[in-house]
Design a protein that fits this description.
Elements: E1 3-7, H1 11-16, E2 26-30, E3 51-53, E4 55-61, E5 77-85, E6 87-88, H2 89-98, H3 103-106, E7 112-114, E8 118-119, H4 122-125, E9 130-135, E10 138-144, H5 152-160, E11 170-172, E12 180-181, E13 187-192, E14 195-201
Bound molecules: zinc ion.
Zinc ion (ZN) binds next to loops.
Length: 203
C-alpha cells in the first residue's frame, strides 16, 4: 500500500505558507507505517516543536493502473474520506530552506490519519464536496473540493504517469487554508459534509 500526497493544491493555502501556485501537482509520499491505525493513540512526535494539522480529502484507489487518462480516472477510485496529513512544520521549514526532501517532516510513523470511508457516487463528483476540521470544538479549517487547483481526476492521472497505482493505495489531495499548530491535549475532529469521520486526541 502506498500513500500519495499532494502539496499546495489550494491557492489560499499555498499563499499562507509563502509558496507559488504550482504548474503541476506537487507529489510526495508517506510509507505504510505512516498510517495511524484506528483505535491507536496519536502521540506528539518528540523531534518536533511545531506540529501542524492539515485536513484533506482522501481517495481510496480501487483499481490497478498506470498511464491513466484523466477522462477515465474516476474509475480508479471508489471511496473518499477526510484525513490529516500531520506535518512537523519546524522540520519542514528547515528542510525547505536547504532544498532537502520532506520525509522527516511529513512521512514519520502515524503522521497520516484517515477517517471512515464514504462510497463515491457519480452525483457526489458533480458537486463541490465540503469538509472541515475542528480543534477543541472550534472550526479551524473549511475546504471545498471545487477550490482545488488540480481535480481528483487530474491528480490520479498525473500520479499514474510516474507510479503504478494499486488497489488500496491512498491519495491525500491537499489541504485548504487554515493550517495551524496543535498541542498535547487537543482533540481534532474531521467532518465530511455534516458527518464526523474521525476524532483524534494528541497525547
Ligand atoms: Zn498536506
Amino acid at each position: 500500500m502506498k500513500i500519495f500526497c499532494v502539496g499546495r493544491n489550494y491557492a489560499e493555502h499555498a499563499k499562507e505558507l509563502g509558496n507559488a501556485i504550482p504548474e503541476d501537482p506537487v507529489i510526495f509520499m508517506k510509507p505504510k507505517s505512516a498510517l495511524l491505525q484506528s483505535h491507536t493513540p496519536f502521540y506528539y512526535p518528540e523531534f518536533s516543536n511545531e506540529l501542524h494539522y492539515e485536513a484533506e480529502l482522501v481517495l481510496h484507489i480501487s483499481k490497478n493502473g498506470r498511464y491513466i487518462q484523466e477522462k477515465q480516472a474516476s474509475r480508479y477510485y471508489n471511496k473518499i474520506s477526510i484525513g490529516i496529513d500531520f506535518t512537523a512544520r519546524d522540520i519542514q521549514t528547515e528542510l525547505k530552506k536547504k532544498g532537502l526532501p520532506w520525509e522527516k517532516a511529513k512521512s514519520w510513523d502515524n503522521s497520516a490519519v484517515v477517517g471512515d470511508w464514504v462510497d463515491i457516487t457519480p452525483d457526489m463528483l458533480n458537486n463541490p464536496i465540503n469538509f472541515s476540521l475542528y480543534n477543541n470544538k472550534k472550526l479551524v479549517q473549511q475546504g471545498k473540493s471545487s477550490d482545488m487547483i488540480f481535480s481528483f481526476d487530474h491528480i490520479v492521472a498525473h500520479i499514474s504517469n510516474y507510479f503504478s497505482l494499486n488497489i488500496g493505495d491512498l491519495v491525500f489531495t491537499g489541504t485548504p487554508a487554515g493550517v495551524g499548530e496543535c498541542v498535547v491535549g487537543d482533540v481534532l475532529e474531521g467532518f465530511f459534509e455534516k458527518n464526523k469521520m474521525f476524532e483524534v486526541e494528541i497525547k
